[in-house]
Amino acid sequence: MTNENHKDSILISNRYKIVKKIASGGMADVYLGFDIKLNRKVAIKILYEAFANNKNFVARFKKEAQILAKLNNPNIVMVYDWGKFNNSYYICMEYIEGQRLKDIIEKKGVLSPKTVANYTIQICNALDQAHTNNLIHRDIKPENIIITPDGTVKVTDFGIAKSLIEDTTKTLNIIGTAYYISPEQAQGEILDCRTDIYSLGIVMYEMLTADVPFRGESSIDITLKHISEIAVKPSKLVSNIPVKLEKIIMHCLEKKQFNRYTSIKDLRKDLHNFLTGKPLILNRDTLGENKKYALKDIFSNKNDYSYSHSLLYGRRKKLGSILYIILSAFFIISLLILSLIFIFKYFDIKKSSAFIIVPPLRNLSVESAENILSTYDLILIVEDEVYSSSVIKGSIIEQSPDSNTNVPPNSEIEVTVSRGSKEAEKEQPSSSYILSPNLTALTLEDSIKILEETGLNPGNITEEYSQTIGKDKIINQDPSYNEEIKKGSTVNLTVSLGEEKIIIPDIIGNDYLFALSQLESLGLNITASKITKPECLPGTVVDIFPPAGSEVERNSQVKLLISTAEQLTLVPDVTKMDITQAINILTQNNLGYEINMIDSGYSVQKDMVLGQYPLKGNYIPPGSKVTLFVGK
Predict the structure, then answer these.
(1) For residue 378, what are the domain limits?
(2) Do the domain assignments include residue 314?
């Protein structure tokens, strides 16, 4: 955009008026715009003119528009239009009034476990839509996630999304952001949908702790840590993190793909299980489901050869020298054969990837043609729509370049699409079918108004408790969003009663096991610590927080104090204190300490106690050490 002083006078495609610049990225500026035809705000992303002549940048920019246009989901930013503008290109998108998740963490710091779960479930919805369309996002991070004022999550920036159909070989291009990159991305390995699950695990970690698990002096340092280091558990940095949520996050951060959740649906299911107090599915044995991935991942590990060699060496004495020589020779010959096969295939791929043979597209639907071209790394452009009596409506009449033509990767294939015959269009009555609107998270009043404006009627209205949707808002609808239904049809609605409240029972005086069983059956998370009470039977509940009779939400944390005859000291809360102040307080309470210096993303946290173990409120023997996690 060159004319910054006259932005408000610029009109793109005789329709979109530039209002003001709202953001800048690595390859484009983003402007607030106004659609004068539909009378609404829009976001307009304009590729930098310096990149407009670079085929790779232009292809990536167009690809983002095409990908987003196919992903119709309430948690993904919608694309309305795209095309050429001056000497560059633009994408017209849904305008989102909200904040980036990164900015929210910067301002608020640690987010509540419930908020983390709710946001992540919505991100899972977006990624599920992408994965269903065989796309990996590859750049999930807080900067690419927008939160609206009503708590709706919007995932953005599919500019480096990759088709799973294309990912049949390893790549030397490490794409992504160092803090959120998966181990397989860092090593240039084959990717699948579980790559996004790892990055999302990092985002959850950051929401809970206000920091990322791995830091370093350079991007290389950070990527090496993703490959080789195990993340410190969030509960070591921030107190009162629910055990189940921490298990979910650490399961996402497994180094090997086959050890993570098998799909984004499974992750979303466990987040719902966490919010509703149900058992996690990650506790089940999923190894059998992942055997097909295990073999691939084992052979992709660069250290496997040395490991196999060590095994042979370790067993040499048992096998005998002759058997050892035979096995070693067999191993070396096999390795040479595999290497030769790989070299020939590699040169075949290199040779064939220089040019791509354009496939035939005539008489195919636009959607089918797009899917086919995506496997060839080609881009479909609908150049024109014309009447045709011989080709059915929505199918391709002509293509350019023609089939069997050799073209470079990322080339554009322009097509002419049939509008059907002119006579059939005249005879066809106006459609009596419409697509059902998306009413999720809207109030009942607004939903009824939208239904009436759309030509539909509200049907049965029921009520349910919900952990994710606020009170008096729509949880579910039938028919669901985007279904084709007749005008005048009814849409059944389910309205949220808000979160189900649980009253804490009076279990003081009962033994710990009975109290634990009763409270967990109500959907509460329990922690317990000892307190010196020689007058009580050991193992008896002597206090509960919050107290009996309190009204709490499902999955809330409840702490029990259990009697013991041994002498104990109460652990004070020294988090957020200066290290010197914290040491003084521990010394006054006859407690020792040990210090673990950890990286912090914020300068104000230098020499601050960011976490402690044991946590405050626990009782431990006098003279015991409290571990302090201090920012550096």
Answers:
(1) 357-422
(2) no
Catalytic: 103? Answer: no
10 Å CB burial of residue 586 (0-12, 13-18, 19+) is buried
**Residue 158 sits in the same domain as residue 214:** yes
Instruction: Give the pLDDT confidence of 314-363 residue by residue, as tens digits.
Output: 444 444 555 556 655 665 666 566 555 555 554 444 444 457 788 888 88
Mean pLDDT computed over every residue of the chain: 80
Q: What pLDDT score was predicted for residue 611? A: 86
Task: Measure the CA–CA gap between 250 and 260, rounded to whole angstroms.
Answer: 9
Q: What is the CATH number of the domain that holds 193?
A: 1.10.510.10
463 domain-assigned: yes
CA dist., res. 143 & res. 157, Å (int): 9
| 549 pLDDT more than 80 | yes
Q: How far apart are alpha carbons 150 and 144 in whole angstroms? A: 18
Q: Which residues contact 409 (CB under 8 A, 6 or more apart)?
A: 353, 356, 377, 378
Torsions phi, psi of 376, nearest 5?
-95, 5
Domain membership flag for residue 344: no
For the stretch 107-123, what's the b/e string if a residue is b when 16 or more beta carbons lie within 10 angstroms of its beta carbon? eeebbebbbbbbbbbbb
In whole angstroms, give the CA distance from residue 478 to residue 600. 48
Q: In a 10 Å sphere around its CB, with 0-12 CB exposed, 13-18 middle and 19+ buried, how is residue 567 labelled? A: exposed
Question: Residue 224: pLDDT band by 50, 70, 90 thresholds?
Answer: confident
At 17-56, the pLDDT tens digits run: 999 988 777 678 889 999 888 888 999 988 888 777 777 7
For residues 23 and 104, state if they share a domain. no
Look at the block and give the residue holding tokens 């086919």: 372
Active-site choice (139, 192, 196, 266): 139
Neighbour-count burial for 479-511, b at 16+ CB within 10 Å, e otherwise: beeeeebeeebebebbbbeebeebebeebeebe
Domain count, the chain: 6
Do 150 and 265 fall into the same domain?
yes
pTM: 0.47
Query: In terms of domains, do 280 and 396 share one?
Result: no
